[in-house]
Amino acid sequence: MTKQFSIKKKSADQTTKIIIPRHFTPTRLTFNFSFLTHDKKYNFNNVGFNKNVKSTFLNTLLRLSSDDLVAIYNYPKETGLEKMDESKMRFSLNTEFSNSDRDKDCLDGLWVFRMNTKGRVIGKIQNTTFYIMCVDTSFDAYDHGS
């Protein structure tokens, strides 16, 4: 036996409202991988992004997402974040990111965190979200200065 049902259409003035309760203020970094560069040299398809680098990458994400963002900003650049001027980058940003206008709400510049001697991760920060744009295992995605 088949159960029959009918679908009632909502009128234009009946819209579903979603209320998101705010019981806390986020203070820790979250990571977004949606806008990783399409440059194979600087994304997860890179040959240098091997098992050891993946392990270090995950451990670094765990460490950074476990501490308050205010504390991370105060860490030395070797263990925290470092601001980098966008003019120093040598990889192409994912155009979807710019087209979405997310970059307008981000902090100035690009931000870098280190994976020990395994590489660097470069991205943009919007509130407490770190948009990962580039994984640099060859240390040539930006000018390190002379």
Short description:
By secondary structure, the protein is an alpha+beta fold. The protein is built from three helices and five strands; from the N terminus they run βααβαβββ.
Secondary-structure map:
Layout: E1 30-32, H1 51-66, H2 69-74, E2 82-84, H3 95-99, E3 110-114, E4 120-126, E5 129-136
Parallel strand pairs: 1-5
Antiparallel strand pairs: 2-3, 3-4, 4-5
Provide keyphrases for this structure:
5-stranded mixed sheet, alpha+beta, 146 residues, 5 strands, globular, 3 helices, 18% strand
Instruction: Give me the count of strands.
Output: 5
- Tell me, briefly, the overall form: globular
The biggest beta sheet is recorded as: 5 strands, mixed
Tally of individual helices = 3
Output the helix-strand order: EHHEHEEE
Percent of residues in helical segments? Answer: 10-25%
Whole-number count of domains: 1
**Termini Cα gap:** 78 Å
Low-confidence stretches: none
- Cα radius of gyration in angstroms: 20 Å
Structural class: alpha+beta
Q: Strands across the major sheet, in which order? A: 1-5-4-3-2
Beta-strand residue fraction: 15-25%
Mean pLDDT: 88
Task: Please give a structural write-up.
With 146 residues, the protein is of the alpha+beta class. 21% of the residues are buried. The chain is built from three helices and five strands. The model has no long low-confidence stretch (mean pLDDT 88). Strand 4 and strand 5 (129-136) form a beta hairpin. The chain has one domain (30-136). It has a five-stranded mixed beta sheet with strand order 1-5-4-3-2, covered by helices on one side. It starts with 29 loop residues before the first strand and ends in a 10-residue tail after the last strand.
